[in-house]
Every structure is written in structure tokens, then in C-alpha cells.
Amino acid sequence: MPRSIQVMEKQQQQQQQQQQQHYCECSFLSSKSIASQQSIKSTVKTTSHSVKTTVKTETEKEVVKLSPLPKRAKRTYLAIDKDKEVIGYVIPVFRANHGVVRGLMEAQEYEQTEEGIHYVAMRNLFVREAKEAMHIKVEKKTRTTQVRESVERMALSRTMDEWAEFRKKMNPDSLTHPPEFIVKPRGQTVWEGNTLLLHCTVAGWPKPRITWYKNNVLIDARANPEKYTTESNYNMHSLEIKNCDFMDTAQYRASALNVKGEASFVATIVVKRFQEGDDAGPLAIKPHGFCPEYGVTFETTIIDKFEVAFGQEGRTLSLGCSVIIYPTVKNYQPEVVWYRDSVPLKPSKWVHTHWSGERATLTLIHLNKEDEGMYTLRVNTKSGFDIYSAYVFVRDAEVEVEGVPVAPLDVCCHDANKDYVVITWKQPAVEGSSSILGYYVDRCEVGTHHWAQCNDVPVKYARFPVTGLVEGRSYIFRVRALNSAGVSRPSRVSEAVVAMDHSDRACLRAGPSAPWTGMIKFTEEDPIVGIVPGEPTDVVVTEATKSYVVLAWKPPVLRGHEGVMYYIEKCMSGTDSWQRVNTGMPVKSPRFALFDLAEGKAYSFRVRCCNSAGVGEPSMCTEEITVGDKLDLPCAPGQAVAIRNTDTSVVVSWTESKDVKHLAGYYIECSVVGTDVWMPCTNKPVKQTRFVCHGLTTGENYVFRVKAVNAAGYSQSSPSAEPVVVKAAISTPGKPTGVTLLEAERDYMVLGWTAPTNDGGADIRGYFVDYRTVKGDVVGKWHEMNHKAVTTTSYKAENLKENIFYQFQVRAMNMAGLSKASLASAALECKEWTITVPGGPVGLHVLEVRDTSLVVLWEPPVFEGRSPVNGYYLDVKDATAGEEGWKAVHEKVNKTKHMKVTGLKAGTSYVFRVRAQNLAGVGNASAALGPILALTRPGTKEICVDVDEDGVISMIFECSEIKEDSEFIWSKNYQTITDTSSLTIVNERGKSRVIFNSPSLDDLGTFSCVVTNTNGISSSYTLTEEGLKRLLDISHDHKFPVIPFKNQMAMELLEKGRVRLWTQVEKCTSACQVEYVFNDAIVTQGKKYTMNFDQSTGIIEMFMDSLEVTDEGTFTFNLVDGKAKGTTSLVLIGDEFRELQKKSEFERAEWVRKQGPHFVEYLDFTVTEECNVLLKCKIGNVKQETEIIWSKDSIEITEDDEDAKKIEKEDGGLTFNIGKISKNDMGIYEVFLRDDRGKDRSTFSLTGAGYQAVMNELFRIIANSSSAINVRSTEHGIILYSTVTYYHEEQRVGWLHKDAKVAASEHVKSGVTGEEIWLKINDPTEKDKGKYTMDIFDGKDGVKRVFELTGKAWEEAFEEFQRLKAAAIAERNRARVVGGLPDVVAIQEGKSLNLTGNVWGEPVPEVSWTKNEKLLVSDDHYTLKFENGKFASITIAAVTTADSGKYALLVKNKYGTEAGEFTVSVYNPEEDDKEEKTG
């Protein structure tokens, strides 16, 4: 090929590469699209093969010259991606040349560049040329043509560069433009419980940032992941709203913002709620669709629902609902799914689910705080679904130690590697009696039960890296919290995690074979192995706290066939000294946690790789990192607001914490007003800013506060919410009942009715009456009778037409609104009545309902009859009785319009009615009132009479159920008090006080108080003349008060010899003043005196650094608290003062002594149970260089002395072990401490009284160790004995017989043998029976051991003595051979044998001789003699061989028999010589 064509083609190829690269990077929406990545990869693969150098030789042939490659070790068969992570296996197919291998490697190592202004500016210019350059034509051109085209291209290139520079200077922002919505978010309508997705597409440059708003409030998806999820891919953005509820109905706005401007669009979302009105039955129609598979529409109804539940840690809790599916289809079952906080629950050892076909049950085994949350049952059918939710609270288990924190929760494992894993958890809601100091992390290998603590020092962060794991093993973890009171119970264990790399874990999940990676990689096999690995890359600090720092890096590309491990090095800022952290063992994972770094210091870090070939070069070092907490505590949440919800719950809302990072959630706490005891409302942090607190006490007044929590700890608590009383929220009242006619005239009628039983939680404010005309069966339209509400239960309907029939209905009204109309009355005719007796009283109501009494009140009848009303009669009956059950409450007529009914039965309902009387007689009864339940409402309080400190007499009534619009109405004798000249009424929140301005006899009577809008809460108090006198006496005492003292002035010595004079008053106000007086002179604060008065505790103190001679005298505290006064004094004079002065000086000297090494406890002795004597002392404030010197009798005990072995030092104590003491150990022992701070000395005199004190203690231990007296018999008599641990020769022991001292004699002896103390009674007789007492001296009075040698004890001992004595006598006197006879006798034949044996026995024994067990008799051959009763002899004359044999001397008397045996051997010398010769 001609050289001109070759050069042109090469230039076109280079230009093609650049244009193709720009072309492939051009993506209209995003530079990171998958299509663009694939295009770039393919382009680079195609062009990389052309990158090589061509050299023309002399023979005009082109030779391909490869660039040299360095030698490297044999490649591993693991495939490594661009992040140096193992992603699969490499298949070595063939050996390729360097050019091909280099091209393949470059194709994979290409890194895609980010989209920028330059590429956008040049995009349109190169797109067209890039497309044309894809196809290369090779044609022959002359040199002139080639030169001309080259010049033209150069000129065109110069023109383009100038034009680009001109455009850049003239309009640098011509390519940028503000955001524009290509696809706008669309409004939607969904049912509750569904998931909603809003999406849009936005164009703009620079790339806009998208944020979502709900009703102009920013949506934070990271803080509420269970509710919102946002995504942004390729300029397409979406917002997902999970589990929609009615509160999600709002306007949602998507806002796009960049440097050129902002654009937004609003979409309206409507969430429809299922209509479940009063008339809706259990099978009310829900939005379910038709199921064509079964040809029906399934309707789901959930009944028998579980309520808000409360469990306790460690226990089991079950939730359940009954589910009705209509219609019933054979073999069809719905799908039943349980959720906790919108997350589906899977069956496990902690969670059991059951579906019986009719009832769905969820059982939570061994509850933990992680189980707390909103539980939802979802029933899915072919036609739709139905759900039900309720919250489950898990209370903490009882703590074993008072004040310790409760267990942490949500322990999770992250970032697991071969020898490293990160553990996270959430802080508990209750810190205990003090703040949490930190946490301990424990680990346990799966399959074992051994828990090992991972950190010696508690960590404060709720995050901790655990190192030192064994590769391939599985572990579980738990966490314990620590405060000053102790350690909490452990949390629930985490899920098991395997210690291995992510790549290895992926291989395990994929199976044993190599996964397909989508490409085949070629590698060149190199026979060279074992090279030093390269340096790691991208070393960064991923976590930094004051407890630890975590490093991460990427493995080197050049790592050899074998694996690599890592060494980590650190360098403190300002030095060049690198120190290796893990010197003992390199780590396997590309993660490492460093501990024991100095807080506040700055460090740099680097990593080295190593393998069997050696240690590689270090990586690039990190930037300097200062050791300290990087995550701040969250800010306190905003103001908490509490709103009434139900009788046992309150809704609490708050403003989220500002600028908080990694928020774990919020804890809500409540406290009963006045207790200052805060209790957690939830034991699991909640993410939202609204929570319903359940389980509260009805009627109690609570305050609430909130605190945020993240990994760094707890925030400060939010400002407390305003107190709220736990009660149901206000609703409209029920329907009035019993609309009747009370009086009629020609043009008006008086109506009456009964107030509704349900007032909706607020007082009835009035009634509205409607009417209509009735003509036969035709009724008219309803019209309003009164436009202003009437406050009584009666109404005069005027402007009616005579003889026309009317119907009436009534509506009640409270602050929540109007009730539904009552049932219409019967048709009533408007005509004049001619009755003479009065009509029925109206307005019946009750107050002060108690278990056994109540007060009935009423108003006079509207129609009085022919004469005025002069009295009333009250009737009562049981609500279950018929008309015949009415009984009169009283016999005499009642002139008032009220009456207290007593004698009722608690828990019984009653009905009341009233009849009015005039001169004509008793009229008709009023409408019945009731049924009224005779039962005291919980929390009801009575009116109490109080006399305050100023002597003011008042009556107080408190109401815990008061509402914002409630009022206290005071009455006297059940008439509203209007004249306030003698009374002053003061109302506070929840309390009202009536103050008597000038109490007198005119104030006697019954005072009552009614609280409006509380359903009749009321009380009364009758003030009598006797009660008024008692109150006036108390008032006088309060007007002239005296300050009471809990303690009179006392004195106390403090450290350094300081003197504290103090007293305490029982109570005082903040205005209380104290005057300090010494010897009638007022003293003030200064160098000598320091005063303190704590008004909260009532403690008054005055301090003096020391006592001097001038301080002798009288100290006085004078108190003035408003009108009250008090005085207390202390006299310090004479001997008492001088003794106190000495003690003060001694305490100051002691304080000075303790500044250096000193004795906490001076040298003293103790005697162990083994009777060893120890000299012991305790020392304090010693250092390693402090000298400790022992001496005895002023002679130092050196290390070479024998006594040095007796000295021990342990846990701040010194011990000198004397052992078993003797008089040789007497002496003066001394211990001397000294160093540069001071010295101290302690001496113990083991002489005289000191020695005697030691001996007395030794005697006490010996005496107390003595056992009970035992008895032992011998042949000589009876022995009484007791054993001791050790006996000392100076121990005194005395014996008493019948309480008389036993004197030593031949008959009775006492003594000690070893550790046995004994008393021997020789040859006992009956006189020796009785009580024996052993008295052992114990240093004081002595220890006595008593033994009764009588009865059976005496008989058994004496009998054994006699038996042993007889046996001894028999043994002593029995016949026996005592000596003289040999064992063997050898004698020559023909000689005579004479043997004599010594014999003993009493009486003298009988003697006989035997030969071979045959009796011998005396004859010429055998001569047998027995002389003097002692000597028995045998003589054998001229022995022969026949005399050889076994002989025995037998002796016998009445005590026994004995034989002395011997053998006689007769030999012949001649025969022996013959035998020897023969032999």
C-alpha cells in the first residue's frame, strides 16, 4: 500500500475513534444509560485492536511492533472487574500475542466519563461526521491531491476552533436552559390501603434536582421509608406512596430546580374511604370487583377484631380476627397476610400464623421490643382485599437490678467480610436511673452457647465494628446497655451472618459452578509464579468516631495467583513515623477497624499488601483524619401537642428535629401531672411525627414530651405539651325522649321532654323544637318553632290555632352540634284545660350521684292549677320494677325544690318522679327521670374545707375531667350564689375555691358546686355551727405562725477538719431569710464563715475551716419567713468545745496525711480459722515507686530474710503471715510508706497487751472450734474427749463434774494429745456418773461443752469398759510360751537333746509335749519336767533318726491355750559322707 494512503487511513482511524467515542457518549437524557454503556464498550472493543505501531522496513514491508510488557506472575483464574472485585472465573483458552491481550484488557478497563458542558457543546458538530466516519473507503490518491486535502482539513479545523472560541466568548450559556416538564404528574383517586405512584419526566441543563411536596410541606422519603419511596432514573422521576390512608388526600407538587430556574407542577390525590355508617351491616358493600373465574363477587367482612394490645418482653401474645367471605365457594380460600409496620411477616420461631378457614391468628412467641408496631391483617380475594390494623405495644420486662437500663433493640449486621462485620442497634426508650454510659457487644458462634464480649470499653455510638472473626464461620450478636447502676439484659440476637467476602457469598448463592459473566476473558499463562503484590488503591476512611476509625480500600490489580492479605500503617500528624497497626496478623478483608487512637489527634493511614512472596509497596495515604465523633446528637424535636382521642388514648404530634442525620426515630414519654415520673409511651422509635399513645388512665391529667434518637444518642426532650385529661373527644348528643304535653290553652301548649342520656361529652346547651300539623292521616312539613335555644326541658309553644292537632319533635345541642331529632310526639290538640290541681313539675335532674345517695332537683310546674303550689312529693322505684313499685321517699310535704335521697344500693338503677301540691290537692306526676345508676364515678372528689397559711377559710372543689369550656357553678342551699359580698370565688384550671371574706353564722348552710360540660360532676358540703368554730380556731393558728424545725441546730466534722453547723426546717417559702449570729453578733459570708440556705430542702448550713480559741460561744440561726419566725441555737463552750477543737485538728492532720501514701486501715491482727495469725493493713494513694518497708523490733526485714516470705501484697492490702504463733514471735512490728509526696507509718506491738489480745483471739477461735464431747471406753476406764482445730500450750482447759471442779488424781486425769482434749476416769464407779462440763478459755468467759454421763450413755460406756477390762485380764493371764525354744534343732545321731521352754500363766497352766501331734509321756527315752510353774523341759536320750519330727510344747489354763512349736532333725555323719561320695 502506498505510504500516502497508509497515513491517510491512520489519521481517519484516529479521528474515527474520537468521533465514535463522542457519539457513543451522547445520550439525550443521561450519560449513564445502559444503552450508552453497551455502545461504548462495543466501540472501544472494535477500535482498540487498531492501536499499534507500524514500521516500514527497507523491503517496503510493514512490521507490527509490539510494545514491551513487563513479566508478571502466573495469572489467577479469577475474573476481576474494574473495582478489583472478583466476579467470576477466567477460562484460559489459548496463548495470544501481546497486542491482542493488551487490546482486550484496554477494552475492559475503559472508564466512562461524566456528561459535561464540553461534550454538549460539541455534540451536534460531531454526530453527523461520526456517522459518516463509520464507513472507511480506501482509494488511491495522488500525492498532490493528498497534500491539498490535508491543507483543507487543517484550515477547516482551524476555522472550527476559532468559531468555537468565538461562541464560547460571546454566549457561554447558550446550551443551558431551565427545567421543563416533558411528562407531568397526573392526579389520581384511589381507595385506602392501595399503593399510589406519581411520575414525571423533566428536561433541563444542568440536570435539574427534583423535590416532592405535600400541601407545600417537603416530603422526606429517607426519614419515612415505610411511607414514601422516591426514584430518579434517566430524567424520569417517581414518588411512591405506600398503604394510602385518608390523611394522604392532598395536593402533591413536583419541583424541578437548576441554575437557570425552577418549574413545578401540582397533582391532586384523593384517597377514598370505605363508607361504614351506623346503618352499615356486617356485609356492607365494599369496592370489590367481579371475579370471572368463579362467576361471583367476593365480599370480605372482618369481625371479632383484635384491639390495641399490650404485651411484655419474654411472654407470648396472640392476635386474631374472624373473617367472613361471601359467597362461600367450595375449595376456595383467600390469601391471609399479616404485616408489621407495612412489612409482611414471615413464619419463624418467633412468629406463628394460622388460618382455620374462618379465623386468622397471629402468635408472637417470646415477645421483644422489635415486635412492637402497627399490625395489619390483609385478606386478599379474587375480587379485592380488606384490611384491619391495630397497634401492639411491648412493655419492658422487669429489671433484675433497680435502676439499670432496659435492653437495646433492632440488632443488625452490615458489611460482613472475612474477619469483620459492623453491628448496629437502636437505643432503648428507658435509660434507667442514670444516663446510658455505653454498650457492650457480644458474639456467639452458631452451634455453640458461649458468648464472648467483643469490646472491653463501652461504646457510646449505636454502631460498632467487630473484628477477629474466623473466615467461613457463622455468628450471631447481641448488645447490652450500661449505666451507673449496672448492665441491662441482652437484646434479642441478630440474624446469623457468615464471615466471608461478598464475592464468595455470591458464589455460594449461585452454586458450586462458576457463574456466567457474559464474556470470556483470555489470559496468558506465564510459568513465573510468586510475585510481590501491587499496592492497594482508593484507601478511604468510611467511619470515624472517638472510639474507632474504619478504613476501606480496593485490592491491587497485580496480586498473583494466590490470595493477598493486608498490613495497615498509621502516622500521627506532624511526624513522619509510620507505625504498623496489625503487627501480629495481617487481615484478609479490605476493611479494618482501628481502636485505641488518641481522641483529638489527627492521623493518616495507608495499606500494604502481602503474600508468600513478600510485602508490597504502600498505598497512597489518606488525608489527615481527626479522631472524634463525626455524627452529632440530634436536635430536640419541636413543641409537642396532645389532643384527646378516646378514654384511654391521646394523639401526640410534634415538629421534626432540624438537620438531623441518620435519624432512628422518636421516643414519646408521658407523665401524670404533679408526679415528675416519666414513662415511655412506646418502646420502639417511631419515624412519623404523629403517634397515638394508648394504655392511659381515664381521667388522669398527662403531659407529653418527645426526644429524637440516632446512632450518636438521644436528643434533648422537646418542650412538654400542654396537660391534657384522658377522656373521649366531644361528639354531638343523643336524641331527647318522651315529648309530652304539660299544659294547654286556646292558643298555646306547654311541652316537656327528657334530656338525652348521652350528652356527647359536653353539657347540653339547649334545645330546638320543631312542629307540624296533623289532619287525619295527612301530616305537614316540619317547621322550626324557636330560633333561640331553650335551656330547660320544657317549652311554651305559642301562636297555635285552637282545636288543631300538632306533632312536635326536639333536638338537643352541645358545643359539638345538634343531635338527631327525637321521635315525634303523639298528635296533640290545642284546647284549654279545666284541671284544678297543678301539673307535673319539670326539669328533673340529679346531682351528686354516689353509691348510696343522690340529690334530685326540679322546677315548679308550668301549670299551677287554681292556686299556687305549696309543696312537693318525691317518689322512687327500682328501674326493673313495674308501676306498682313506686314508693314515697318522704311522708311530710317538701317545701324546697330539691331533696337528697339516701339508703340506695350501689350498682342499682333507680327512676324518680315528683308530684306538686296546691290547695286543691296533689297533681299528676312529672315525667319519670331515669334510670339513674347509683354508682360513684371513678375519680370523683368531694368539696374540702381548707385554711391556708394566712388563716383564710375556703372551700375547694377539684375536677379532673374539666374541659376548656367548663365552668364551676357554686350554689348555697341549691340556689345559685349571686351575692358575692361575703364570698370570693376563684377559679383555676381544674379547681375552684370559695373564700369566706368574714366567716359568720350567716354563712351556715349547704354549699354545692356543679361543673358544666362534665355530665353532672358535682359535690356539696354542709357547714354547721360546730364546724365553723373549729375552722376559726385553725385560722387563728395560721395567722400567727411559727417556723417548725425538723432538726435543731447540730454540729458535724467534715474533711480537712472543717466544722458544719446545720439545721433543717419542715417548710419555708422562697422569701425566707436567715440571720447568722455568734455571741449576739451578726456574722456574714467571708474567709472564716461560709453560709448556705437550700430553700427546696429547708437545710441551713454554716461552715468554718477550723476551730480557734475565739470560736468558743453560742451560734444562733434566726429565721424570718413572712409572718413566721423561728430560732435555733447551739452552745459550744468548756470541755465540749476543747474536745471538738482537738477532733477538728486531728481531721485536718488526717487529710494532710492522706495526700501522700497512707494507711487506709492501720496495722492490726486477725486470726484465721486455721489458727494462723496475720498482721494486716490497707494502704492507699500509693504509686509504683512508693517504698514499703517492714521491720520487727526496729530491724528492717529485707528480701533475704526468712520473714520476707511471710509478706504479701494484694489489692491495696499488706499481710504478714506469722502462722502458728509462739513467744518467739513477740515484738514490735512496723510498716513504713514513703515517696516524693510524703510518708506514713503504722506500728503494732505484739508484746504485753497486744500479745495477750492476739492470744485471746486465738483462744476464742480454738474454743469455738471445739467439738461436742464424745465418750470412749478403754480397759482402764472411760475417756471423755473433744477435738479442736489447733491447740496452743497456753490454752486453759478445765473440767467440772456436777458443776464442781475436777481435781487431778490417780482416779481422774485430764490432758491434751495433739488436737484432742480429754478426761480419763480410771476404774469408774457409780459415783462417776453425772454431768461433765469442759470449760475452754476463749479470752473472755470461756466456751463450755456439756456431756451427760448418765442413763444409756453411762451403761454403754461402762459395759464396754468392763468388756475391755476382762479382755485385757484374759490376755494378760492366759497360758503362753514366752521363750526358750528354738525353731529348728539339728543334732547328731546318738547324742542327747535337752530343751527348756519358759511358760507363763495365771493360774499356772497345764503343760504337755507332742511329737507330730501325738502326746508324749515321760519314760526312759523322753524325760518331761515342769518346774516352779515356769520352766518346762524335755530330754531325749541317745537320739536316733526316728526322733526327727515336729515337736510342740502345749500350755493351757482357763484363759487360753498356746503351743510353742519347733522341729528336730537328727543326722548321721557317715551316711552323709557316703551320699556325698556317691553324688
Task: Itemize the secondary structure elements and their pairings.
Elements: H1 3-25, H2 34-48, E1 53-56, E2 62-65, E3 78-80, E4 86-89, H3 98-108, H4 117-133, H5 143-170, E5 177-183, E6 188-191, E7 196-205, E8 209-214, E9 217-218, E10 228-233, E11 236-241, E12 250-258, E13 261-272, E14 299-303, E15 309-312, E16 317-326, E17 335-340, E18 343-344, E19 351-355, E20 359-364, E21 373-380, E22 385-395, E23 409-414, E24 420-426, E25 438-445, E26 451-453, E27 463-467, E28 474-483, E29 486-487, E30 497-498, H6 502-510, E31 537-544, E32 548-554, E33 565-572, E34 579-580, E35 591-595, E36 602-611, E37 614-615, E38 625-626, E39 641-646, E40 649-653, E41 663-672, E42 679-680, E43 690-693, E44 701-710, E45 713-714, E46 724-725, E47 737-744, E48 749-754, E49 766-775, E50 778-779, E51 783-784, E52 794-797, E53 805-814, E54 817-818, E55 828-829, E56 842-847, E57 854-859, E58 871-878, E59 887-888, E60 898-901, E61 909-918, E62 921-925, E63 929-933, E64 944-947, E65 953-958, E66 968-972, E67 975-976, E68 983-988, E69 991-996, E70 1005-1011, E71 1017-1023, H7 1025-1039, E72 1045-1053, E73 1059-1065, ...
Helix pairs in contact: 1-2, 1-4, 2-3
